[in-house]
Amino acid sequence: MHDITELEAAGLPGVFVASAEFVAAAAAQARALGFDPARVFVPHPIQDRTDDELRAIAEAAVDEVVAKLTAP
How many folded domains does the chain comprise? Predict the structure, then answer.
């Protein structure tokens, strides 16, 4: 969350991507930082996924990431 906050402050658009397990934690951290970044949550867990499973997760999320990255 700190990285995306710093990127945005530097004028570089970004999207925070995390697993769904961290929805509440991301909201709390955003409130604490006073910054509400664009975010996309993917299925949890990520660890122990096969390469094919990770590719499928990425492919399912990429359109939402691009849409949020390019939104005004």
Answer: 1
Please give the residue range of the domain that contains residue 47.
2-70
Token digits for 22? 């961290």
CA-nearest of 62, 70, 24, 68 to 42 is 62
φ, ψ for residue 22, nearest 5 deg: -105, 20
Low-confidence ranges of the chain (pLDDT < 50): none
Residue 18 forms beta bridges with which residues?
Answer: 41
pTM score > 0.90 for this model?
no
Q: Which segments within 1-72 are labelled E, that is strand? A: 16-19, 39-42
d(CA 69, CA 15): 6
User: Under a CB-based contact definition with an 8 Å cutoff, are residues 1 and 30 in contact?
Assistant: yes
